[in-house]
Each structure stands twice: as C-alpha cells, then as structure tokens.
Amino acid sequence: MPHQVPLEVEQEIDQRLTRYPDKRSALLPALHAIQGHFRYVPEDLVEWVAAKLELEAIQVMEVLTFYPSFRQKAPGRYHIRVCRTLSCAMAGSHGLMDALAEKAGIDRSHADHHHPICVSKDGRFSIEFAECLASCGTGPVCMVNDDLHEQVRPEDARKLLDRYS
Amino acid sequence: MSITYKAGKNPHPLEHRMIFRNIDREGWDPGIETYLGEGGYESLRKAMAMAPGEIQAQVKTAGVRGRGGAGFPAGVKWGFIPPNNTKPVYLICNADESEPGTFKDRYIMHQDPHQLIEGMVITAFAIGCHTAYIYIREEFPFAAKILEGAIEEARAKNFVGRNILGTGFDLEIHVHRGAGAYICGEETGLIESLEGKRPYPRIKPPYFPAAMGLYLCPTIVNNVETLCHVTHILKMGGEEYAKLGTPNNTGTRILCVSGDVQKPGYFEVQVGKVTMGQLINEMCGGLRTGRTLKAVIPGGSSAKVLRADETFKLKDREISIWDIPMDFDSLAACGSMAGSGGVIVIDDSRSIAWVLNNINAFYAHESCGQCTPCREGSLWMKKISDRIVAGKGSPDDVDTLESVAYRIDGRTICAFGEAASWPTESFIAKFRDELKAATSDSLKGAIVNPETKLAAASLKV
Question: Which of A72, A98, A67, A74 minimizes the C-alpha distance to A84?
C-alpha cells in the first residue's frame, strides 16, 4: 500500500509554504511534517513532496539523505538519542548507551555510520548516538522522542524506559 | 527589586546577570504578560522612536561582539549591508546552538523567549528587514514551540506583524527547524539549509551574507545571545553598555562550563572581569576531589586546548592558565579563542588520546563533505586516533595525524576546516609525549590501516 499524506499534514505543509518567497525553502518543514506523522519519511512520498514543492525528486533525496534527523526507515515507537560528544562522554554516556540498549533489548552490534539506528525486536524502542545535544552541563543526556533527560545514570535506564510504554 | 531564584540556582556573586536575569527565577514564566510586567518591550518602544541609523550607531558604540563563536562586532556586521541596496533584507537568528560545550541559548529560548524576540524586532527595524527567521536546531523541539507561541503573543500585542506600534513598520518572524547537522551553525551553510538545500557553506568572497545571503539578498545572521544583547543595549544606551566588561570586550557573556568540575553550569559574567581560576575554582567549586587540572578547552570544542602548566604571554605580562581573563582578546593572545563560551575542563584522570579521539569523531561525523581536505581528512584523523586509543597506534601515527590536520587547516571553503583541525594540532603540540606514549614502538613502520593493508597486499609491497 502506498503511503497517503493525511489532510492535516498537507495543510500544515501548505501553511508552512506561505512563510517563504521560494517553495524550496519549505522542504525541511515539509519533511518534518511527514516524519512527524509517520516517524520517518517513506520512500514513496519523496515524489509527493517533490511535486508539492515543484522540485525534482533528487532535490528532495539529497536533503533527506544528508540530515541526520531525517530517517528513511521506521524507528521504534520511542526513539532514543544518547549524546556521544565530549562532555557527555566524560560524564559516562557510553555506559548509559550500553545500559539503555540492553534494557530495551536492542542489539547494537551492527550499528555504523550509515546505519546508526537500531530497533528493538518488539519495535517499541530504537536507539542511536547523537552528536552534542547542547546540554553539556547536565551530562550524560539523552532524548526520548522530543523529551530531554539530564544526568541519566546507567542504573536509571530501566526506570527511564518504563516511562515510555 | 530583589529577585528570588529557585533553590540551588542562585547566581554566583561573581556573576553579572543581564541576559540570564530571569533564568531559573522563582515565579517567572515565558509568557508575554510576565515579560511585560518587568519592562518588557520598552526597549522596542524606545527603538521605534529612533532612526534606524541611530540604533546601529548605539550598537556600534556598545561594541558587542558576536556570541556565537567568531566574536565579530555586531554593529559593524550590520553596517556591511550595501547602502544602495534595493532588495529585501533578511535577518536570521542563529539558534542552531551546537558547538560542543555550549548550552546557553537553550535556556534563553525555553525560559525568556520574548527577550530574544524583542532583540530581533529592534534589529530588524535597524537594518530595514521585514522578514526574519529563527533557524533552530531540530533537537530543541519544545523551544521551537515556545518561540512560535511567543511570536503569536507578540503579534497580539502588535510588537510583530503589520504596522508595529503604529509606526508603519512591518515584520514577520518565522521559526525554521534544522535537522541535526552541526554545519548549519556556519552562517552560509545555514542560509543554504534555509533555502531547502544541503547546508554546503558558500565561498567568501563573494557570498558575504550581508551583501549576498538568503535568496542572494542582504542577510544578517546573529546568534541568539547576541540578539538579546541588542535589547539591553537599547535599554541602557550604547555608552553605558560599553562600560560593562573590558575595552574591546564589552558587555556580559554566558560561560558554559562542563567536564571535570564539581558544579558544571552557566555563569553570566562581565567579559574579561573573571579569570579562568575564578571560573573553575570559585564559580564551579573546583575540580573533582583529589584531581588536578590537565587541560582546558576554553571556547567550544573547536578552540585550541590550553595545557594546565603552560605560561601565556599577554601584552604586558606572563600568566598561568589560572590568571587568563575570560575575554576574546586574552584568549586569542593565549593562542586559543573565546569562541562560543563553552569551557570544557579536563582533569588528570583523562587520557588525552581518548579526549582527542572523541573530538575527532565529532568532526568526522559533521563534515559536510563539500571540500575534499575536510571530508577525507576528518575521517582520517578519526581513524588514526581510533587506532591510538585502541592501543594499535605506531609512534608515526602521531606525526601522520598532525600532518593531516595541517593539510585541512586553511584549505576549505568554511571555517569548519579549522574547527576540525585545531583540536588535533593543539593537542599534539601540547601533549605529543603522552600521545606517543600511548602508541607502540613495535608497530613502527608497520602498515596498520586496514585499507592500506589491503592495497599493499594487492601490490605485493
């Protein structure tokens, strides 16, 4: 089944389009609107976005594939981003990553630069390392969907995950 | 009027709270009524009664230097818009806060968004701009919502929108979310991103944003904190503002401290009035128990590292790391930079190879890939430092690492090349012995890079 863009998502994109003198500028907002609904940008909607913004599909693809926040595959229902960068790493973010992955039942052995996101078997959680989340004073930090969690110790992993069910 | 802060959030006595006056404040909320209750938007009323040129002159007199990293005087930047310009002028607030070690703009946007919006409206009026954007990083989803709400509140009070305060001046402000790329903090990369493209920075000249920016129109890109300073410059007047801080390093700025200190956090100080020693020992409660200082990265991860036992030469004296005044010129004289105000403290428990490797991994991930030296070099640097951290490095690797860094530095379109190579250059210059000691003499001359091994095997070298 091809994906259908729901009316309210299209309306949001139409509204965002009014903010720029050039339709192409609405590309990031359009991809955000679609990802906000589907949790990723389904491949069959690339043409739809291109048509909407009067672009070529490749112009959508080059943006979709560049920016780390845009996903081309479905993540878990709750997507976790653990900060990997210096201050958080010094505060123990690698230990936090290991604890969260283990408790969420996620195998990260195949994670690499091109496939940073790993999903749990039940699809409830996914996890990846993110670069600096700009909360260096309260490391280690992680985000679960839109929520920021600060000073999360590895032993807090279970409790944190239990908040998302 | 006395202000009460939340428990445990009292500013340190060495602080001078202006931009962060309302951060962590008891009873404070980001709504417009709270802001108006304390003289909010009075600076805007004042500005609207002035000529745009007069506002620009006040900001120049104030001498405020950009708080995003480059430290360029904001008033001078505004003055670069061509005087005979007939195109639309754009203002972009750079809210992409992503320099590792920096965490100040997030608090402004979450807790005191109207301070930023007021600064933006004043700035837009001063430069003749009718459409402004706030480019905010994707990782601040709530801040984006708060700002959108605050813009609507300001519109309802006629501080934004058509015919602002009856002056005939129109301004729309839009929030534009990024998507997780550090390079969007570089102003021309940001502009490309706002145009819906990959954020490949543009080459200067000719693409100086003030002349050829967004849609090739004159564009001013200012950091969140810088725009907030504009509100206060108008409030107190440029001359009064310039009395804060030290000559050529005026005003206040927010220093963000992270790493190996007792109490990491943010501290708003008069620029240059606080030393590194006061910052670490008094404001942050010193190092962790039983630890001694090894190094400090003073202005975000791109800034060159300072070694704890170095002696630094200022114009008139020689000083230790503890006595460095935290201002633009002093840190530049010490061979580093004040940058974005992100101070990362490293104690003697840390391996320099591990720290450098973490930084190299960041730049390898974030290089946009447009310029070959940076795209290839940043990844090489990461691979080499990966090897050293894994105990599989040869002493030659340290020299190779250094040479790669110097082959990126100065050879790229944007300053990311320097940002990526300065850590390696400075860590090696200052900790060469420790890095060499982390390698193994027995691997000298050995081919250790897996790709090179494959190539060598096929060539039967």
Answer: A98
Which position has the higher pLDDT, B422 or B2? B422
Cα gap B15→B57, rounded to integer Å: 28
Domain borders along chain A are: 7-66, 78-162
Q: Are B401 and B407 in contact (CB under 8 A)?
A: no
pLDDT at B413: 98
Q: Residue B45: its pLDDT value, please?
A: 98
Query: How does pLDDT run across A66-88, given as a tens digit for each residue?
Result: 999 999 999 999 999 999 999 99
Please tell me if residue A112 touches chain B, with a CB cutoff of 8 Å: no
Domain that holds residue B200: 32-243
> Same domain, yes or no, for B144 and B58?
yes
Instruction: Let me know: does A95 contact A154? Beta carbons within 8 Å.
Output: yes
User: Do residue B112 and residue B140 come from a single domain?
Assistant: yes
Q: What residues pair up with A127 in beta bridges, in sequence order?
A: A80, A118
Residue A113: predicted pLDDT: 84
Residues B149 and B48 placed together within one structural domain of the fold: yes
CATH number, domain of B379, equals 1.20.1440.230
CATH class of A78-162: alpha beta
Say whether both B226 and B158 belong to one domain: yes
Min distance A60 CA to chain B CA atoms (Å): 8
Q: Of the candidates A25, A85, A135, which has its C-beta nearest B106's C-beta?
A: A135
Return the number of other C-beta atoms located less than 10 Å from residue A134's C-beta.
25
- CA–CA separation, B130 vs B139, rounded Å? 27
Does A72 reach chain B within 8 Å, measured CB to CB?
A: no
Per-residue confidence (pLDDT) for residue B453, from 0 to 100: 78
- Residue B210, pLDDT > 90, answer yes
The answer to whether residue B5 is domain-embedded is no
Q: Which of A25, A29, A68 sits opposite B180 (nearest CB)?
A: A68
3-state secondary structure of B6: coil
Residue type (1 letter), A94:
H
Query: Which pLDDT belongs to residue B460?
Result: 65
Whether residue B285 lies within 8 A of chain A, CB to CB, comes out as no
Chain B: residue whose CA lies nearest to A91: B259
Residue B103: which of A19, A20, A137 has the nearest Cβ? A137
Q: Which residue of A has its CA nearest to B183?
A: A67
At position B284, the amino acid (one-letter code) is C
Mind listing the pLDDT tens digit for each residue in B341-360? Answer: 999 999 999 999 999 999 99
Helix, strand, or coil (residue B415): coil
> How does pLDDT run across A13-27, given as a tens digit for each residue?
999 999 999 999 999
How far apart are alpha carbons B403 and B355 in whole angstroms? 19
Which of chain B's residues have a Cβ under 8 Å away from the Cβ of A31? 179
Total tally of structural domains belonging to chain B: 3
Q: Which residue of A has its CA nearest to B105?
A: A134
Residues B222 and B253 in one domain: no
Residue B461: is its pLDDT beyond 60? no
Q: Give the Cα separation of B115 and B442 in Å (integer).
A: 60
Contact B196 A27 (CB under 8 A): yes
Query: What is the pLDDT, as a whole number, of residue B444?
Result: 86
Residues of B in contact with A146 (CB under 8 A): 141-142
Question: B260 and B310: one domain?
Answer: yes
Helices B224-236 and B52-62 cross at an angle (nearest 10°) of 100
Whether residues B426 and B330 fall in one domain: no
Which residue of B lies nearest to A92 if distances are taken between CA atoms?
Answer: B259
In angstroms, what separates the C-alpha of A85 from chain B's closest C-alpha?
Answer: 7
